[in-house]
Design brief:
six-stranded mixed sheet, 245 residues, 36% helix, globular, 10 helices, single chain, alpha/beta
C-alpha cells in the first residue's frame, strides 16, 4: 500500500473521524460476547445513540456536539456496524438490545435516554421494552415498530408510486426485500457499495445537500467489504416473525 492510498484510507478511520467531534473519544467494549465500538463525549444524563443502515456512528456528527452540551452522549456502532464486530449470529433485536444493556452496565449507568435511527430505532425500542427500568426516555427517528405488519409490505409498488424520489404516501422500501436475500448482495456489492448508497440516499432524501460527499465516502468505506454487507443484512433477516423482539 503506497503512502497516498494509506492516507486516503486513514481519513475514514475512527481515530481521524473523531477529530470532527470536539470533546469526544473512541472506545471499545467486550459485551454480550461481541466487541462494540462507541464514541463518548459531553456531560449530563447519558444519551445512547444508535445509527441505522447504511450508516455508522459518524451519522450523528451534525448534532453530536450540540447534544453533548446537555447530555453524556454515547454513540454506538451496533453489532455488525462500522468498527464493531460482525459475528455470524445474534442479530435479533432482543439480543442486540442486550448488547446495549451490557454496554451501559459496563459504563456504570443505571438509567439512560436512548435514541435510535432506522434499524437503531428497532434496537432502541427493544431496549425500552426489555429493560424499562433502565430507560428514562426513548426516541425513534425515521423508523417504526418492527411488527408483523412489515410482512405486508408490497413486493411490487403501486402504479405511479415508484419514481426518482420515495412517495411519502406510498413508500416503496425495496431494500427490505433485497436485504433478506442471503449471500447474493455481498457478491454483487462488494467493492461497489457506493452504487447502492448513492441511489438510496437520492431516493429517500428530500434535500440531498444535507449529506456531503465525504459522508458518503465514510459509509462506503465501512460497507464495501463482503463481511460488512453480510452483517448489516442480518439486521433485516431477523424480523419479528422469526425472532424475539
Amino acid at each position: 500500500m503506497d503512502n497516498q492510498h494509506a492516507l486516503a484510507v486513514n481519513q475514514f478511520a475512527d481515530d481521524e473521524l473523531i477529530k470532527n467531534f470536539p470533546g469526544f473519544t473512541n472506545h471499545h467494549a467486550n459485551v454480550n460476547g461481541t466487541k462494540l465500538h462507541y464514541v463518548e463525549g459531553g456531560s449530563g444524563q447519558p444519551l445512547v445513540c444508535l445509527p441505522g443502515w447504511p450508516q455508522t456512528w459518524y451519522s450523528y456528527h451534525p448534532i453530536a456536539t450540540e447534544m453533548a452540551r446537555c447530555y453524556r452522549v454515547i454513540i454506538v456502532d451496533i453489532r455488525g456496524m462500522g468498527s464493531s464486530e460482525k459475528p455470524a449470529s445474534g442479530y435479533d433485536k432482543k439480543n442486540m438490545a442486550k448488547d446495549i444493556f451490557e454496554l451501559i452496565k459496563y459504563l456504570g449507568h443505571d438509567q439512560v435516554n436512548i435514541m435510535g435511527h432506522d434499524i437503531g430505532g428497532m434496537v432502541a425500542m427493544s431496549f425500552a421494552f426489555n429493560y424499562p427500568e433502565y430507560t428514562r426516555k426513548v426516541i425513534v427517528a425515521d423508523g417504526s415498530h418492527p411488527s408483523e405488519g412489515m410482512l405486508q409490505m408490497p413486493l411490487i409498488p403501486a402504479k405511479g408510486t415508484f419514481g426518482e424520489k420515495m412517495d411519502g404516501d406510498m413508500p416503496y422500501a425495496w431494500w427490505m426485500g433485497f436485504n433478506q436475500v442471503k449471500a447474493l448482495p455481498e457478491k454483487i456489492l462488494e467493492g461497489r457499495f457506493s452504487y447502492l448508497l448513492d441511489y438510496l440516499f437520492s431516493y429517500v432524501m428530500i434535500d440531498e445537500g444535507k449529506m456531503s460527499e465525504f459522508d458518503r465516502q465514510v459509509y462506503t468505506y465501512h460497507y464495501n467489504a463482503a463481511e460488512s454487507i453480510r452483517a448489516s443484512n442480518c439486521w433485516y433477516q431477523f424480523c419479528p416473525r422469526y425472532s424475539g423482539f
